[in-house]
Amino acid sequence: MEPTSWGSPAVPPPPAAPERKGTFLKPFALLATAAVLGGGVALGGAAAVGAFDESSSTTVVEQQSSATQSTVPTAAGGALSVNAIYRRSGPGVVQITSTIGSSTSSTGQFQQSSQALGSGFVLDKEGHIVTNFHVIDGATSIVVRFSNDDTLKAKLVGSDPSTDVALLKVDASADALTPLTLADSTRVEVGDAVVAIGNPFGLERTVTTGIVSALQRAVKAPNGYSIDHVIQTDAAINHGNSGGPLLDTRGDVIGINSQIETGGSGDGNVGIGFAVPSNTVKTVIRQLLATGKVVHAYLGVSAVAVTSDIANSFRLPVTKGLVIQTVTPDSGASKAGLKAGTEQAVIAGESFRMGGDVIVAADGKPVATIDELRDVIATHSPGDKIQLKIYRGGTAKTLTVTLGRQPTSPSQ
User: Fold this and answer.
1) Does 252 qualify as catalytic in the annotation?
2) Residue 11: per-residue pLDDT
3) Structural domain count, the chain
């Protein structure tokens, strides 16, 4: 088990919440010339999904014929039917066209540019649009298309690669906007019914249904850091669903559809999708609205959780905590004097560095998993001071650490 050096301490999460190497729900990519996409998209597999040309406007609702008559159950009651959710929240879901590159070179020569279709949703009446960072990453122009076929240019307000969230803004009349509500994702439970709306493979406003399959997943962000508390769902989401909402039975957003697990079988859906939770989105959006950027606090260690095997084999003074594997030079952890392990050991087939400090509490809160330590760090800003309770050998110590700023990528 190789530790990694991420912004907040980073190691593979415990078995109950493994870090997934999911495939990003890439926008449905199209190689194009300078021409802007028309009302539709010419798909290679048009025969399979129904042929249409660039002047057509097609709405696809992927649901069984009886779906509009049934409700999606929820423990809280008051569930809307799938059709009601689609009619209520669908107008707030948009199609995003990102163009990467220029149609002409510096010498005026013709040059191809690439375009891709993703999804997003309206946040407020001011025209803010939420999507994934990887949908607009590197885009030289961004166009948002609404359910009434209005197409508007969007400007990038800001983005956060560490959580795969981006915020756009369009100049639109408030009457033309249908904002979606960000729900409290901490109230989501396994088994809750969910609805996803987006533009898979360029198909406009497709709705699919499923359940919350698991919670507290960790997936890798576009810049290599970890996104925690991710929601897993079996609702069918595919490339092009990127940035679209995962909705509860009231039509409120509980997450942004971001990645899928393909199981090595290709690029299609196999029933395992991941959504960035809405509470993470709220935190990121607040910073983007205020400053146009997101700054994450940084401790500067990697660590592994103490197991019974580790505690017994090395006669540790505690049975729960985090054994420091590496300390990043010039980080807050380094300046505070935290020590990494130097003794290579193999336990149950896993490789560790032992002999380093064992973190047992942060800010007065016990930490037994890397997720718990990351959660503490996430509540702080660069420059904040936190107290870490550690064991060095058999001696308990309390160190004060001044948090730094997360580097652009874990390798820095």
Assistant:
1) no
2) 33
3) 2
Interatomic CA distance for residues 408 and 412, integer angstroms: 7
Of the candidates 198, 46, 196, 180, the residue with the CA atom closest to the CA atom of residue 118: 198
Domain residues for the domain of 80 are 19-291
Residue 410 near residue 7, CB atoms below 8 Å: yes
pLDDT at 201: 85
Q: Which CATH number characterizes residue 319's domain?
A: 2.30.42.10
What pLDDT was estimated at residue 148?
87
Residue 112 within any structural domain of the chain: yes
Decide if 100 is inside a domain.
yes
In terms of domains, do 328 and 270 share one? Answer: no
380 is catalytic: no
Same domain, 113 and 177: yes
Find out whether 251 and 85 touch, Cβ atoms under 8 Å.
yes
The closest of 213, 216, 276 to 241, measured between CA atoms, is 276
Question: Rounded to 5 degrees, what are φ and ψ at 379?
Answer: -85, 0
pLDDT tens, residue by residue, 171-213: 999 999 999 999 999 999 999 999 999 988 878 789 999 999 9
| Choice among 8, 89, 134, 162 that is catalytic | 134
The answer to whether the CB of 384 falls within 8 A of the CB of 296 is no
- C-alpha 259/C-alpha 256 separation (Å) is 9
Q: Which of 257, 291, 325 is the last residue of a domain?
A: 291
Question: Which residue is it, tokens 């959780």?
Answer: 305
What is the model's pLDDT at position 261? Answer: 81
Query: Is the per-residue pLDDT at 29 higher than 50?
Result: no
**Residue found under tokens 């660039």:** 54
Which stretches of 241-321 are DSSP H helices?
Answer: 278-291, 308-313
Note the pLDDT of residue 273: 92
Q: What confidence score (pLDDT) does residue 17 get?
A: 40
Cite the DSSP H helix spans in 5-122. 46-49, 82-89
Q: How far is CA 389 from the centre of its chain?
A: 31
**Hey, how many other C-beta atoms are within 10 angstroms of the C-beta on 150?**
13
The residue annotated as part of the active site, out of 89, 242, 278, 331, is 242
Catalytically annotated residue among 137, 160, 164, 371:
164
Note whether 256 and 135 are same-domain residues: yes
Residue 226 among the catalytic residues? no
CB-based burial label for 386 (10 Å; 0-12, 13-18, 19+): buried
**Residue 209 lies inside a defined structural domain of this protein:** yes
